[in-house]
């Protein structure tokens, strides 16, 4: 026998896993297996080995990124820089403390000055120190915030959208000059008081909070519920029905006004970091100069809600993206049966279902914000996005929790908070049913409201 053959045989026996061969022989007919392999061509053998190697290779997973269609590439370089600045703030300042503040139901007020330095408050407004940027960029910022903490995104939406938007859309020039610059810097914090203990979806049909005029003073009486930021805000926009005309009017009420009290709503299971309040107005006196001079009916209130409803759809997208990205990272790390669970077919199927809905939602809200920038945003278009995105978000966060198994109910794995918060986003700024009726009216020409 040639020396080369002797060496090859020696190497073969030295590398044989005898115990492994014994175990394999108990499962298959080794003789038949060797005969079949021996008949395979060199090309087929290489394919088989490649398949076997590919199934067992421990490859480094790609970076986790929920923007699968690279929609952020549509932003200008300046807008992209603002988006990344917000992302850095959320990841470095908010993310490390998000679970802690959510669990103890407190807001990290110490971050408000740092947030003001981002120069993004009143982003789409023109003048008064506001940046005057696009609604598309505003949507991306809402998504960036909500992908880390939907509570923080909600706080910002109340400040920048509802409170500032009310003054910008319905205030006099004097009121705008007085309040908007300091609100833009987040030196003055605002809240928006519309919903009432007994009037939620039916606000368009009449408010129980009443306003009575006496000379140059208005006397407000009633209650408001679920008012975000109101426990620590400086001003609250209060909507009340004029007892004489029955018209809905808006008032800028400073929170230290006599007769104004804000009581924190306790024991929430969603958006716990948001400081929601039950506001009581007991003969609260407001000067005529603090009445929003261009708010004369509920149509004016609806105008503000329409503008902010698009941002709520983006918030839902951000909430879904946060859950998806955390679930994907978990699947790439968690091992069962000797390999990461992200390598299993059923897990990948769930992840792709989540990504499909997420990408569809992102495309929808991107187009919605384009319509808003074009001046073509309508109630029904904003409502449809809110319906679709909040529904799909609930589905995505549910799948994310499922993928984490028991760990999905623990805060530290960064999915449970999104599951809970999605429930609040689903309901506020118009329930699914109310928004569906707005769309239904538009496509049929018939109102189905009671």
TrEMBL record:
Pfam families in alphabetical order: Acyl-CoA_dh_1 (PF00441), Acyl-CoA_dh_M (PF02770), Acyl-CoA_dh_N (PF02771)
UniProt domain Acyl-CoA oxidase/dehydrogenase middle: residue ranges: 191-284
Acyl-CoA dehydrogenase/oxidase C-terminal domain boundaries: 303-443
Domain of life: Bacteria
Occurrences of domain Acyl-CoA dehydrogenase/oxidase N-terminal (ranges): 76-187
UniProt cofactor(s): FAD
Keyword terms: FAD, Flavoprotein, Oxidoreductase
Family: Belongs to the acyl-CoA dehydrogenase family.
Name of the protein in question: Acyl-CoA dehydrogenase family protein
Protein source organism: Fodinibius salsisoli
